[in-house]
Amino acid sequence: MELLRDTVRSYLARRPDASWGEFANALGVAGLAVPEEYGGGGCGSPEVAVVAAELGRALSPQPFLQTAVLAVQALVLDGTEAARDRLLPALAEGAVSATLVFAGSFPDESPDEPAHDGGLRLEDGRLSGCADHVLAGELVLVYVSGLLVEAVPTGRTSYTTLDAGRPLERLRFDRVPVRVTGGAAHMARVRDAGIRALAAEQYGGAARCLEEAVGHAKRRRQFGRPIGAFQAIKHKLADVLLMVESAGSAAFAQTCSAEDAAVAGAYCSQAYLSAAGENIQVHGGIGITWEHDAHRYFKRATSDARLFRTPESHRRFLASRIFEPTSP
């Protein structure tokens, strides 16, 4: 695991602007979770989490989450044999990026959770409607009407987002023919795999914020002393350290239940937001300048906290699963 972490970290430091194909070919990470018979590494969530954490630490724009996690898991868990034979080798090679659209509500969500479809509907083998705020990817897979389908959008519109390193698109489908690639029996499990990978990204970003804040506290001097020698800064950084270490425990937990994914999603989202905010506070005036990276981590933390569920939505989900409803 340490070798994988160090290799990915070193590459991202040397080639931060590498394309997805270059990144995937150099490190083989696109196929980490792809079974070996399809040209992948046959690895599990621990390896995926290590790579995701390093991407989060570097604020990398690589489409790892949507391609190597969401699309791959959808095909592995729900794809037909023909679809896996056709698509997984290309995804494992990094020859194409991909994205996954969840149309409709998940079966384990409460009725007050918003739907995700944007009006998508499948009629007579043709897909119509729009999918909003979709992670950018070339190959488009859609969970809709109990099926996993491949569809080519009629139009794509890129959003101007808070976090430029996480491109989002609006996909339009005007009665486009679809290619059925599987069912939707494991749609919630695929979503949970995405939540866990995102939690690892958030942990990586939070850990980097802590490193930057500690480094600045050691270098910056006031009244003849490093600012890290003052109790106010010490306590602030100690609190962030506790949050970051706890986020790592949640993100790298060797479990796969929906409840555990929600715990990781809720805690890592909040930890990243707090760490990014405190990083700005420790840096003081320089932390709010456009030239410093602190604001970029805060923007990524803010956008990540709404990518699947908000921390509040994760906690509502946990409450619904843990506490029995009471009669009035």
From TrEMBL:
<dbReference type="Pfam" id="PF02771">
    <property type="entry name" value="Acyl-CoA_dh_N"/>
</dbReference>
<keyword id="KW-0274">FAD</keyword>
<dbReference type="InterPro" id="IPR037069">
    <property type="entry name" value="AcylCoA_DH/ox_N_sf"/>
</dbReference>
<keyword id="KW-0560">Oxidoreductase</keyword>
<feature type="domain" description="Acyl-CoA dehydrogenase/oxidase C-terminal">
    <location>
        <begin position="197"/>
        <end position="322"/>
    </location>
</feature>
<comment type="similarity">
    <text>Belongs to the acyl-CoA dehydrogenase family.</text>
</comment>
<keyword id="KW-0285">Flavoprotein</keyword>
<dbReference type="InterPro" id="IPR036250">
    <property type="entry name" value="AcylCo_DH-like_C"/>
</dbReference>
<dbReference type="InterPro" id="IPR009100">
    <property type="entry name" value="AcylCoA_DH/oxidase_NM_dom_sf"/>
</dbReference>
<dbReference type="Pfam" id="PF00441">
    <property type="entry name" value="Acyl-CoA_dh_1"/>
</dbReference>
<protein>
    <submittedName>
        <fullName>Acyl-CoA dehydrogenase family protein</fullName>
    </submittedName>
</protein>
<dbReference type="InterPro" id="IPR013786">
    <property type="entry name" value="AcylCoA_DH/ox_N"/>
</dbReference>
<feature type="domain" description="Acyl-CoA dehydrogenase/oxidase N-terminal">
    <location>
        <begin position="19"/>
        <end position="94"/>
    </location>
</feature>
<dbReference type="InterPro" id="IPR009075">
    <property type="entry name" value="AcylCo_DH/oxidase_C"/>
</dbReference>
